[in-house]
Amino acid sequence: MTSISATEQNDEEYSFVYGDEAVTYGVVRKSVVEGKKRKIAIKVHPSCEVVVNAPDDAERSEVHEAIMKRAKWICEALQEFRTQQAYVQSKHYVSGEVQFYLGRRYVLKVVEDEAAVPMVKMQRGKLLVTLKRFDERKGGYTKVMVRQWYHLRAERVFHERLAALLPKATWVKGIPSFRVLPMSKQWGSCSAKGSLMLNPHLIKAPKECIDYVILHELCHIAEYNHSERFWRLLSSVMPQWQDVKSRLDGMAELYLNE
């Protein structure tokens, strides 16, 4: 399962002060596998949640020291995500709003034409929506048409990317079934039987991000849980997956905004 937001269960919660800002962070304790390097990892999520993954035997002072060493980076990351959130406003589906498709921005343009068939198409950097007439339901109609357009595009592009990526997933036998389903917490998921579900909002992201989610779910066919073996398998087919994931996480609120 590829999640949209943080899902770690925090065991402890603390805070630190950097400059004029007090920052709260959660600590998730992890048992250390014998032979593996003992480390403290810090994540800042797009939701502005700060999570520290620490060995279960790490002292609180050790965790705090690791936090303070990266305090400047944490606050800068928080500021960046807050700036992004400030620009995320509910859409009204009127001309001038921004829509995304395969990582590119398109300006929405809604036009009235009584003689035309209602439709959505891309035209010279715009997402053009044609309605027969304008009335008080214009925004609602436009939203439904744009949502359907995204869904159809997602089905087509996801099918193409799945076919292109299957040769990498040598452990997969045959062609997995998949369906496009809106999800609020996940980009994708894989059932115990190997069927994939992909979020239509993912079509707004660059192809590399789509490939990451599909490969992530294909890896679950071989390893259902997020084990060490799972991450090794994912790294073997997409060595740069962490950078791609960060890119997708950083744009999640904009892509999900309706």
From TrEMBL:
Residues 38-249 form the YgjP-like metallopeptidase domain. This is M48 family peptidase. Signal peptide: none annotated. Pfam families: YgjP-like.
